[in-house]
Design a protein that fits this description.
There is one protein chain. The protein folds into 2 domains: 380 residues, no CATH class; 124 residues. It has 23 helices and 6 strands. A hairpin with a 7-residue loop joins β5 and β6. The N terminus is likely disordered.
Length: 520
């Protein structure tokens, strides 16, 4: 038996599943699958030093420190706020981060499944999209609880709501969905500012579809006003918080001046090409399917619903590309923003392609799924032994253990150019508000400080413990290295740890203890 929705030919199993699946039920199964793929990472070393930094910010926040004033960053504080809540619940900041990432990934996978199930009436395509997302976010870049993991969830949720207004404008054109979706996108702006392209693209597309379906200009402008209000509300609340906390000036400095300076920091072509390689190759299994879907769309006369869904996915993908490119730095985790629309496109294109030969539908879907998932599986297998990826030894925890056993007052630890997770494990306050080493090396200009002056000030306090990685992951000037080497003459080596990483060369992380601290 065969039937059709629009111009799509559906397999019998699809006919029996016309009624949309329960979103809660889909989330439950996505959570189980995500837990199987990600649980092993809950206690491993920091997979990404940005994630480690957010854990430290959250811990200091819980101890009364104010972001931007006490710990500086150019990003909004949405992710550290989530981590602070998770740390308050779980106690361990890294575990909290990984559990929150697990929930975000499972929620995103469930929404991707529901997107195609409800808007395209393609349940099997939705299941594939959800499975693809779970697998691709189980790679090293997706295991870390970085901003894209959480932004993918809020963007997908907003896209789910606004696509409903585009596909069925008369049914879903009330102010509630628009305000909810724009508020989600506003929350995304407080996770990372680069969500702006998706926010504009989704809202404009939804309003255009409503206008095309016969909505009056007055109603359309009212909906636009609701979208703007919902999108700005989280930022207004964040600004009010930092004003009340007495940190408005550093907050505005980080939000405005520092971000402009960060984008202006030059990146050489060779570095861009290298980062494109590390960003695109791991998701290469998804990159062919937009071309396949475009070809299928040209070959077949799609119905209105399917045309709108395909156009919506194309808009999403283009906006996500702008999201990735906008900071002009192309760090590998940026490319996770491409994964949700690519998974939707891949799931939809694969099932439509398989229906070209109905007798071999299941075999073609299985073969296509295997080919699509091969790059993700290969990357996981290739880097399973990397100590900073899948974790044989949690080096930051080991270093922190030596520090606590050797004695610390919580204000005498300095992590020069290594994973700031050491501060969190040692329950130590960083000696500078510039916690990440990269802020005093590659991006000192956007940080708005003098690297040599700040590092000299820290070393002059003679912290009891200093952590140094060599070769350095960051580029420091020769005067800084000379000052560090001079300071280390008063220290003895307490421990050394070798680490491997799938991008950078292996590093030797050394823990130094000041001799005067124990009478040496």
């Amino acid at each position: 038996m065969r039937t059709s929705i629009g111009r799509f030919s559906l397999a019998p199993a699809e006919v029996l599943a016309r009624r949309p699946a329960s979103l809660c039920g889909t989330f439950f199964w996505a959570l189980i699958a995500a837990l199987c793929l990600r649980a092993f990472s809950f206690g491993t070393t920091g997979l990404d030093w940005d994630e480690s930094f957010y854990v430290v910010v959250a811990q200091r926040w819980l101890h009364g420190g104010i972001p931007y004033a006490d710990i500086w960053d150019i990003h909004p504080m949405g992710v550290p706020a989530l981590f602070a809540l998770g740390t308050w619940i779980f106690g361990d900041g890294l575990v909290a981060a990984r559990v929150l990432a697990l929930l975000a990934v499972a929620g995103t996978a469930a929404l991707l499944c529901a997107f195609l199930d409800r808007h395209a009436r393609q349940r099997s395509s939705g299941v594939l999209a959800g499975l693809f997302y779970l697998a691709y976010m189980a790679r090293p870049e997706g295991l870390a609880a970085n901003t894209e993991v959480f932004n993918n969830f809020v963007i997908t949720a907003a896209s789910f709501l606004l696509a409903g207004q585009a596909v069925e404008p008369r049914r879903n054109s009330g102010p509630g969905p628009m305000f909810a979706a724009s508020s989600l996108l506003g929350i995304g702006l407080q996770l990372k500012y680069v969500v702006f392209p998706e926010a504009v693209a989704f809202c404009v597309a939804a309003l255009a579809c409503q206008l095309g379906a016969g909505a009056s200009l007055r109603r359309t402008f009212a909906q636009a006003g609701i979208a703007i209000a919902g999108g700005l509300l989280p930022t207004l609340l964040a600004t009010l918080y930092f004003w009340r906390a007495g940190a408005l000036q550093p907050y505005l400095d980080a939000t405005l001046r520092a971000n402009v300076a960060y984008v202006a920091e030059p990146v050489v072509l060779g570095t861009v090409l290298m980062r494109l390689r590390y960003g695109l190759l791991p998701i290469s299994g998804l990159l062919l399917w937009p071309v396949v879907l475009a070809v299928l769309e040209r070959r077949h006369e799609f119905g209105r619903r399917q045309r709108i869904v395909c156009l919506w996915l194309a808009i999403w993908l283009v906006a996500a590309v702008v999201d990735v490119a906008m900071p002009l730095k192309f760090w590998k985790h940026y490319f996770n923003a491409l994964v949700p629309p690519l998974c939707l496109i891949s799931g939809l294109a694969l099932t439509l392609l398989a229906r070209e030969i109905p007798a071999n539908f299941a075999r073609m879907v299985a073969a296509g799924a295997v080919l699509t998932l091969t790059p993700a599986a290969a990357e996981m297998a290739m880097h399973a032994g990397d100590s900073r990826t899948f974790g044989r030894v949690n080096v930051p925890r080991e270093i922190a253990g030596r520090i606590t056993s050797g004695g610390t007052n919580g204000h005498d630890v300095y992590v020069f150019n290594y994973d700031p997770l050491v501060y969190a494990y040692a329950n130590a306050a960083p000696p500078s508000r510039f916690v990440l080493g990269v802020e005093l090396s590659d991006f000192a200009a956007s940080a708005g400080t003098s690297a040599i002056a700040e590092i000299g000030r820290i070393l002059a306090t003679q912290p009891r413990w200093i952590v140094v990685a060599r070769p350095s992951p960051y580029q420091y000037s020769e005067p800084i290295w000379r000052e560090l080497d001079t300071a280390l003459r008063d220290y003895q080596l307490d421990g050394s740890f070798r680490e491997t990483d799938y991008i950078q060369p292996p590093i030797e992380t050394s823990l130094f203890r000041r001799r005067a601290a124990h009478g040496g």
